[in-house]
Amino acid sequence: MSLQYPSVQKVLVFGGTHGNELSGVYLAKHWKKHSSFVQRSSFETILEETNPAAVKNCKRYIDTDINRCFTDEILSESNPPEYEKQRAHQLNAQYGPKKSPSAIDFIIDLHNTTANNGVSFVVEDSADIFIMQSCAYVQANLGAPCRVFLIEDNPYYTVRSVGKHPLGVEIGPQSHGILRADVTLTMKRVVALLLDFAHLFNTGHEFPPTRVDDIFRAKERVDFPRDAQDDLNGVIHPSLQDNDWSRLNPGDPIFLTFDEEVITWPGVANDNEMHVAFVNEAAYYEKNLAFWLCTRESKQVAGLRRGATDVEK
pTM of the full predicted structure? Predict the structure, then answer.
């Protein structure tokens, strides 16, 4: 069975949601000057620098993380003093309002991670067949592993959530504040595939039912070991470092304290198979997050074709 979604009129590509994640920053700048790469005849592609002040200062943010600012509460605040909250209001007015029929159709939000994630998509809602089919299309055509990090159980109110179909692109490892050729060129290929997918959809291609593999559902945040003063008391264990998406077994080392004591994974009560993601991401130290625990799954996804009206979800 194929579900009908309305055609895509506009695609928004965000670069610089975090001002020191430079692949998206500089690809968006380049494409603004040389737009042929991102243009498709069936829709308009818009390029937006999400957080200009943070980009100018090569910082993740100025006052607060803009990728956590798209709650109903923040978007309804009157004249918030924080720069990112002001910018959230601007972007919501320009490309939303969030959850409204006038919201922009498809948002591709570009990010880098210092974790050894490779290519991953951050998906907000696995019931969004357009997004899930786009992930399947890239998985089939990229020629490299492409994981799906599913946050529907742990939403964090992203800038892309303004759009009807939001998709985060996370590619690493790349240190913040620098550019790597392999990471940046891979991001370029991923964006091209996503735009091709939207164009195929618009021009009548019917995507058959498919299965999306390598879905990692975010379940639990794990903090670093800490002492009585709440200071870090250890680091990621060498055997876990750079092993994003790997399975954790009870007894596996996860941390090494500064006294060289090994802290192991105790397992979980319900015996779920757990995997790790965003291991030792630099930007997550301030969030008390050493890595995410995830369950791994696959999902059968309905077929997709262009139609006159939206599907019921």
Answer: 0.95
- The pLDDT assigned to 312 comes to 39
Q: What is the pLDDT of residues 191-240, one digit of tens each?
A: 999 999 999 999 999 999 999 999 999 999 999 999 999 999 999 999 99
Q: Extract the tokens encoding 166.
A: 């939001």
Options 170, 206, 281, 286, the catalytic residue? 170
Question: What is each CA distance from 35 to 32, 106, 121, 192, 299, in whole angstroms?
Answer: 6, 18, 24, 12, 35
| Contact present, 105 and 9 (Cβ < 8 Å) | yes
Task: Check if the beta carbon of residue 148 is closer than 8 Å to that of residue 212.
Answer: yes
d(CA 33, CA 194): 20
Helices (H), the chain: 22-33, 52-57, 72-75, 83-95, 129-141, 181-202
Contact 197, 137 (CB under 8 A): yes
- 281 is an active site residue: no
CA dihedral 212, 214, 219, 224 (to 10 degrees): -150
Please compute the mean of the pLDDT values over residues 154-171 and round it to a whole number. Answer: 95
Q: pLDDT tens digits, residue range 119-144?
A: 999 999 999 999 999 999 999 999 99
Report helix, strand or coil for 254: strand
Q: Is the pLDDT of residue 267 over 50?
A: yes
DSSP state of 231: -
The whole-angstrom separation of Cα 297 and Cα 144 is: 19
**Secondary structure of residue 125 in the 3-state scheme:** coil
> Please, are residues 158 and 109 in contact by the beta-carbon 8 Å criterion?
yes
User: What sign has the CA pseudo-torsion 128, 134, 140, 142?
Assistant: negative
